[in-house]
Amino acid sequence: MVWPFSSRERTSVSEDDLVDLRGKVVIVTGSNAGIGYSTVQFLARKGAKVYMAARNEEKGREAIKQLEAEDLWGGKVEWLKLDLSDIRQSKEAALEFLKKEKRLDILVNNAASVLGPYKETSDGLLDIMVVNHISHFIFTTTLLPLMKQTAKEDPKADVRIINITSEAHQMIPPVTTFAGEETLNKQYEESFMGYLRTYGYSKLANILFTKELQRRLLSEGFTNIISISVHPGSVTTPGSQRFMSSVPYVSWLTKALSSWFSYSQRAGAYTSVFAAAAPEVKAEPEKYRAVYMIPVAKVAKPSKDAEDERLAKELWETTEGVVRRLGIL
Length: 329
Fold this sequence. Notes:
Elements: E1 25-29, H1 34-44, E2 49-54, H2 57-70, E3 76-81, H3 87-100, E4 106-109, H4 127-153, E5 159-164, H5 192-219, E6 225-230, H6 238-245, H7 252-260, H8 265-268, H9 270-277, H10 279-283, H11 285-288, E7 292-294, E8 298-300, H12 309-325
Helix pairs in contact: 3-4, 4-5, 5-12
Keywords: Oxidoreductase
Organism: Agrocybe pediades
Pfam family, one: adh_short
């Protein structure tokens, strides 16, 4: 865990630390609450048109009203229906966006599922891996041609793909392979720690996806598209509170300490928005391509498995095979 009062070079990020985003288009998934909400606020306040990609329209509209009441400083926020529990709808959401916009500068894949126990979907896939990895994979790859077009057509383009992961990826035993669809359905024991490990396994996938995506982009010559994975720190969000509340044998003291040693939602967004819109990232692309970042805005070393190029390629190919089998690719 990264403690809020631990020493580090940077302790916060403000709107003044970010580039001017006027004329830019952004998507943030899972953003009607929590870290995503604050991420939308930061980026919209720099002038971007931000799509709040979320499942519940009523909650999304309420969140947008709240953002407007808090002042967007000239930015704009629109709701985009995105249900990551449904792989097909995730594809449809991306296609709907492509009908609306001619460019996409920043994609922040923020949404995640934490709650256990987990179950298989009607497609025979583990629900947490669908939400945390597979749906984001199809959403991102469907949008990727537009991001490439943006990078090609705009000489000042600064295109970024940010995948929110978790330090929990370091809690799992060594992973030997991601070859074969069964690897996407891996679960650990039915316990609090088991759920955390299964969650961590899905967040390992986020880092590996980030690395393989960057490798493929560079192989195609897209040096001005940067992909970064971000661990936001220990943040008290609606999702984390529901998870803690769902575990009856987690003591009241543990729950209290979790809240005490957590960042606020705005502070939890610091590293995400730095990765998405800080000028340092464009100025030093070699430093930031495919890196893993922790609070606040620090490049860090992930687990050994998270740096394994073979695992990254296997994960991509397996995920691609799944969506092809389902007729979604």
